[in-house]
Amino acid sequence: MVEDRITDGTRIAQLLSSELDGREDGGLERVAVTNADRDVEPTADGARAYDVSLYRSRSEADTDESDEDETRLAQVFVQEDRARLEFTEGQDVAAEAAGDLELRVRPKATRPPRTLVFVESGAEVKRATDAVQEAVRSVATTD
Predict the structure, then answer these.
(1) Which residues does residue 32 pair with via DSSP β-bridges, in sequence order?
(2) pTM of the predicted model as reported, rounded to 2 decimal places
(3) 64 pLDDT exceeds 70?
(4) CATH code at 91?
């Protein structure tokens, strides 16, 4: 039995990144980890480690030259003992899903508003990924 619990914020963020980049199901095939800061050091307030971006294919009728549209779904920040997702899209759905998955959630009163989801151990990474999937589904249905 494993006695050690992963509670290092940087390591938790790395595990989450691997999970988001490695899975190709439930909408995660359109999710990418972008703008990563490989040298990020945790801070008390949280240092930005990377963005979680959602790619949506454009229709043939779209006149833009790009084949895909990128939306920043969330940002991931690292603190000494946890990682934090800050959802900028699909906030309400992410908050509800994360709460149902027994992750700590709170709103952030900024403009635009954000939803914070705290990932406090390596064991919570899968549940955080499920919350990201729900946010992806909600954003995809509003296209």
Answers:
(1) 53
(2) 0.87
(3) no
(4) 3.90.1150
